[in-house]
Amino acid sequence: MIRLAVIGTNWITDQFIDAALVSGKYQLAAIYSRSLSSAAQFAEKYSNLESQPRLFDDLQALASSDDIDVVYIASPNSLHAPQAMQMMRAGKHVICEKPLAANEKLAQQMFAVAEEHQVLLYEAFMSMHAPNFKLLQAQLEHIGPISKAFISYCQYSSRYPKYLAGENPNTFNPEFANGSIMDIGFYCLSSAVALFGEPQSVQAQAQLLKSGVDGSGSVLLNYDGFEVVLQHSKTSDSKLPSEIQGEQGVLQVEMISTGKKVTKIMRGQEPEDLTLEQHANPMFYETLDFAEQFYNNKMNPARKTRSLIVAKLLTEIRRQTGVVFPQDAI
């Protein structure tokens, strides 16, 4: 069993723990929070486990523990790089929530530390591991040469009313390396890279909030013979599916982040629902993917390549749209 520690006591940590435990390949070994009381409160929901997780409020103590194999990091984006490198320097493998780091330079440093200390660094991007995403990839050749693609994820943030009321939630705070492209837009960008690789060029625009981050935006990725348009927003909703257009047909996917439904429409034919049944927890498949690398004791080079390409593109998109983080000056 992989002995799992978590940094972060929020809903996404709960979802990852649930997926990890259901996979049968992990045991919850430790929980870190800035206060032991918060860690204890979070741990209450796992009181039925045979082996109870240890509680930590000191990161170095967590890093030094001999009872932990891998640390899952779900702290604010700005803390991903320093916390991950601290864990890896102590010999711990790291699963880091997307985005891996605030910028490309930090992402490169993280992989350098992983290589130096011979540990795994894994970006938790759940979408590409889902059966329906893999189905989408497999179907690309059936619709003929790609002509155009549109990938959309727009969802009104539950924290946006707080921002409008004058508060400063992490979601819209540059101090935490956040904003639309770093959060919800990541699914669009990383999905495009997973499907089509690194683009030849990128053009981006965004609507900036007074806090300094983007509330919404769009990105144009140019490939050889086709283009991919990304649409992302945390200040409005969209019900449009993502779509890949080929010369012979069209593939549509609802909810690109989880692959809710996949439809193929060949020219002159009726729509065909290709959707596969998937696990209720969308993070289930990434826990299996990491476990495979863990037991092989070898990082999947394709995962590393995608993460670095996405970090490079995110940094360039922010440069073009004028979103600056404190970490960019480091």
CATH fold assignment of the largest domain: Dihydrodipicolinate Reductase, domain 2
Q: From the structure provided, what is the oligomeric state, counting identical versus distinct chains?
A: single chain
Major sheet description: 8 strands, mixed
Q: How many domains make up the 3D coordinates?
A: 2
Instruction: State the helix count.
Output: 10
Low-confidence stretches: none
Q: What's the helix-strand series?
A: EHEHEHEHEHEHEHHEEEEEEEHH
Mean pLDDT: 97
CATH top-level class of the largest domain: Alpha Beta
The coarse silhouette is globular
Beta-strand proportion: 25-35%
CATH-derived architecture of the largest domain: 2-Layer Sandwich
Report the structural category.
Answer: alpha/beta
Give the CATH H-level superfamily of the largest domain.
Dihydrodipicolinate Reductase, domain 2
End-to-end distance, in Å? 38 Å
Describe the overall structure:
The structure is a single chain. 35% of the residues lie in helices and 25% in strands. With 330 residues, it is of the alpha/beta class. The chain has 2 domains: 2-126, NAD(P)-binding Rossmann-like Domain (Rossmann fold), CATH 3.40.50.720; 128-284 and 311-329, Dihydrodipicolinate Reductase, domain 2 (2-Layer Sandwich), CATH 3.30.360. Strands 8-9-10-7-11-12-13-14 form an 8-stranded mixed sheet, covered by helices on one side. Strand 13 and strand 14 form a beta hairpin. Helix 5 (104-117) packs antiparallel against helix 10 and helix 8 (184-196) crosses helix 10 (301-321). This is Oxidoreductase. Residues 2-123 form the Gfo/Idh/MocA-like oxidoreductase N-terminal domain. One of its GO terms (molecular function) is nucleotide binding. Residues 149-251 form the GFO/IDH/MocA-like oxidoreductase domain.
